[in-house]
Amino acid sequence: MKNKKNIIILVVFVLIGIFFVRAVLQKEKTIKEGQFVLLELAPVDPRSLMQGDYMNLNYAISTRTSTFDQSILDSISPVSENEILTTTEEELSARAVNDIEEAVEKSKLNKRGYVLLSLDKDNVGSLVKMVNELGEKNDNQIYIKYFNYGGWRFNIGAESFFFQEGDAEKYEQAKYGGLRVDEDGNSVLVGMYDKDRKLIGN
Fold this sequence. Notes:
Blueprint: H1 2-33, E1 35-40, E2 54-56, H2 66-74, H3 81-86, H4 89-107, E3 112-119, E4 125-131, E5 141-147, E6 160-162, H5 168-171, E7 176-181, E8 187-193
Antiparallel strand pairs: 1-7, 2-6, 3-4, 3-5, 7-8
């Protein structure tokens, strides 16, 4: 019985080791062969630099925008003149609240999916759309996987950047995160870039 338990534990550790090695090899392959993409950063929270060697990143594409908010409003059916004349103010208000709640619910992201980006001549990515699975794309476009944990924001798995202690001030000037992205949408953060798209700390 004890030997069986030891074998099970050994198998579990072996499987964990295999998974870890595969993940490392996958990242190395993505860094070596992946498409280089620059993503604009949302304003950096100074508190994220207080840990000395660690920085939390927010990408502009993963935050709410006026365009996104407008897409919610556009999905709401307008009230006709006849409805205005035949419906009470309370009923119209109740309908408006219900329509907005339904539109917001429909706009919520799935737990997992892909962000389709369009790349300019400098490989700076801009949001095109969000989809549930990989599809066709143009030569100047690329997919990146996203993970959503509720609400309108999403993560792409490259939100943490580590640097040497004492270099925080240097990275406060970061404007872009540089990523390598493979054909399956897996991304690896490879560096921080300034407003002129030059690698910081090089």
